[in-house]
Write a structure and sequence with these properties.
Blueprint (H helix, E strand, L loop, with lengths): L8 E5 L2 E5 L3 H11 L4 H8 L6 H14 L6 H6 L5 H17 L10
Antiparallel strand pairs: 1-2
Helix pairs in contact: 1-2, 1-3, 3-5
Length: 110
């Protein structure tokens, strides 16, 4: 079980437990993926509250790697989570809230 104070988010993909975390490296990965110049620009990217499936994948995959796994985006894209799309949205939202302190309600599904 992850440490919420450290920004950990627990997830189960294909029956296996993972700890997700947006570390500094994971945030840098997201800056590159979203073409943001800095953390303020990255946070601004999510302010509208709308995420595409690709956005969800990028955020969750960066969190998986930040949590210590070396899985690539393609591997993570093939994994399933109980609860389907709403569960993916919640995972991404929880990660973004842990990193930026935004309201969880500000992120809606695609």
């Amino acid at each position: 079980m992850g440490n919420a104070r450290r920004g950990d988010v627990d997830a189960v993909f294909d029956g296996k437990n993972y700890t997700l975390r947006l570390t500094l490296g994971a945030l840098a990965e997201l800056e590159t993926a979203f073409g943001a110049d800095d953390l303020v620009g990255l946070a601004g990217r999510f302010e509208g509250g709308r995420l595409s499936s690709r956005d969800l994948l990028r955020v969750i995959a960066a969190g998986v790697r930040g949590g210590g796994s070396d899985l690539g985006d393609d591997e993570i894209a093939r994994m399933s989570v109980e609860g389907g799309i709403p569960a993916y949205v919640k995972l991404a939202s929880d990660l973004l809230v842990a990193a930026f302190g935004a309201s969880a309600e500000s992120v809606s599904h695609p």
